[in-house]
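Please, structure for the following, as tokens.
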Amino acid sequence: MRAALLFALLVGVLTWLPVPVLAAAPLSVKVVAEPAHIETVLGGRFMITTEITNTGTAPSGEILAHLNVASIEGSVYVDPEDWSPSRSQQLSLRPGESRKLTWEIQAVNAGHFAAYVVVVPFGDKVAGKEPLMISPLVDVEVATKPTLTAGGALPVVVLVPLLLGLAAAGVFFTARRRGSDR
């Protein structure tokens, strides 16, 4: 009787305890980005390729690969949507499967930047506490396009009319000389 009473008491206590939520399996993917370094000019277009591999023994489920761009200098404001309008790609991978994703990017700021891809679980079952995987940084150096400054414009402003005047004078004197030779 005593054992039955203890058993009933134990069952009663256990039914009132909260059921532990099972954590999602950690994301087992490897993310590689290429090329490692890019040099371009303001307005230049370039591509980054990432290869995502499921290194686990189970399907990855739905995952989201998301491109981001950040200033390494810190003084330049970066709006990643200006750099690439298509910054997210959804996929799922079987164990051992790899997929290459390409990212078209346009440099909209001059300076030193890092581009990288973050891979996160995706869908209704995501609790928000899952780990994310990040690609190595792609080093992006963006130079300003050379523009004509006031100092560079002065020789053009002076030389073009001077050369046009000399050419006109040459035509005038050549025509006059031909007229006097007759």
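Confidence is low (pLDDT under 50) at residues 3-11, 16-24. The helical segments are 2-16, 80-83, 150-180.
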